[in-house]
């Protein structure tokens, strides 16, 4: 049986922090995706999910310096679980997307979900 860990996300960038280490450029950012549906009463609902993304410039990732809050992106990568100790001494566990491909979408790309 083949195993894989792959996620594809298309959404808008929230917070972004550009970083560099060992002569490589990178970024840590959040991306929001929306899912639209109607509740049992027929009222439209938009459910927003935020993802944390880690990206380093490389073969399939370039132009990280062009990414800012509000930029529409398509991100492909894998989910990684990690833990760290916060400044208050408490251990935190997070899931994040490690990007292996990023495409900056046109600013007029329609990312608003349809109400089916």
Describe what you observe in this structure.
The chain has a single domain, classed as OB fold (Dihydrolipoamide Acetyltransferase, E2P). The protein contains no helices and five strands. The chain has strands at 7-21, 24-38, 44-56, 72-85, 91-104.
List the helices and strands and how they pair.
Blueprint: E1 7-21, E2 24-38, E3 44-56, E4 72-85, E5 91-104
Which labels suit this protein?
116 residues, mainly beta, OB fold (Dihydrolipoamide Acetyltransferase, E2P), five-stranded mixed beta barrel
Strand content is: over 45%
Can you count the helices? Answer: 0
Straight-line distance between termini: 35 Å
Strand arrangement, largest sheet?
A: 1-2-3-5-4
Q: Outline the biggest β-sheet.
A: 5 strands, mixed, barrel
What would CATH call the architecture? Answer: Beta Barrel
Q: Could you tell me the radius of gyration in angstroms?
A: 16 Å
- As an assembly, this protein is single chain
Structural class, by secondary structure, is mainly beta
Which residues sit in consecutive blocks of at least 5 with pLDDT less than 50?
A: none
Number of domains: 1
Give the total of beta strands.
Answer: 5
User: Which fold name is given in CATH as the topology?
Assistant: OB fold (Dihydrolipoamide Acetyltransferase, E2P)
The CATH class assignment is: Mainly Beta
